[in-house]
Amino acid sequence: xxxxxxxxxxxxxxxxxxxxxxxxxxxxxxxxxxxxxxxxxxxxxxxxxxxxxxxxxxxxxxxxxxxxxxxxxxxxxxxxxxxxxxxxxxxxxxxxxxxxxxxxxxxxxxxxxxxxxxxxxxxxxxxxxxxxxxxxxxxxxxxxxxxxxxxxxxxxxxxxxxxxxxxxxxxxxxxxxxxxxxxxxxxxxxxxxxxxxxxxxxxxxxxxxxxxxxxxxxxxxxxxxxxxxxxxxxxxxxxxxxxxxxxxxxxxxxxxxxxxxxxxxxxxxxxxxxxxxxxxxxxxxxxxxxxxxxxxxxxxxxxxxxxxxxxxxxxxxxxxxxxxxxxxxxxxxxxxxxxxxxxxxxxxxxxxxxxxxxxxxxxxxxxxxxxxxxxxxxxxxxxxxxxxxxxxxxxxxxxxxxxxxxxxxxxxxxxxxxxxxxxx
Length: 424
What we know:
alpha+beta; rotamase; peptidyl-prolyl cis-trans isomerase activity; isomerase; repeat; PPIase_dom_sf
């Protein structure tokens, strides 16, 4: 037996119909029979041939087959189905199809889901998406301009290899290394294997602007809130930003799981609604400890830009905005909400290679957010977590209960100084 086929049964017609061909099959088949023509191979099969090339000297038919193969610089060869396509007609972005797609895609500015692997010409890995893939909009783009441009020419399910010249990659400046991403030298050509999975999950992310049709009811059927429904032509939808505490927690969480045009009926317990306090709403009062019911239709949403897709300036701007929100909430004695704002600010400016170590603005911003969050947690008597953020400031462990007492005493002394007649 050679590769699962008996010697006396290994004829060209039988072999040409096989869909799975191993390197060992090819070696033995070359010895036992004349090599099949290139047309007899299954064009959909993608086969690594690097080891086989080293071991076997090709006969002419095999060389003919090899001419149909497109190779990456990493040594893996792929069967190319069509002639290379010069997408931009300037030689800067060339596409070769490895696997054809099935469904047409209407290229509107929705989220698309792709998998990709980008390498330099010498085979060095620059970036690879995870097993799920990456979502982004064509207008916003991702990684480099070539991805959005190429996807507009692809069908869902299509897999291609792109040769990307600098003008559609990272230009004459290149790209520094970042976390698990490799660097790209100036004027470098990239080889990108790109697979178009289809549309992304149409769910809002944290910070997305959502627009809803919304009806809120009590258990007895009393409507306390209604928006997005009207007998006239003008309908004012209810809108808010997710994960910004602009609505009750239960509604916020539920919307993050919904897709566009989905209608959901929500039953929200008091701890995720208005809690133990009475709440005056648009059409009625919600009594303390009330379970509430919502009918929600997600009409539209605009996703917030992911941190991984932001440049340095955008990260700093977002962090400054969240820090200012946190400071305002501290003045209002809303320490729990302020702590969340400081934590969000820190997400934008975590330690990574995109921020120079000597950048005083980043160091100062990171320090103030850690200190602000630690102060809020002390006010909330969460001393263990407070110490964690103090550690991030490279400060030694301290007795935070004592520190909180000292802060209160200092505040009283300041007040006493301003008001001499006051007793502390």
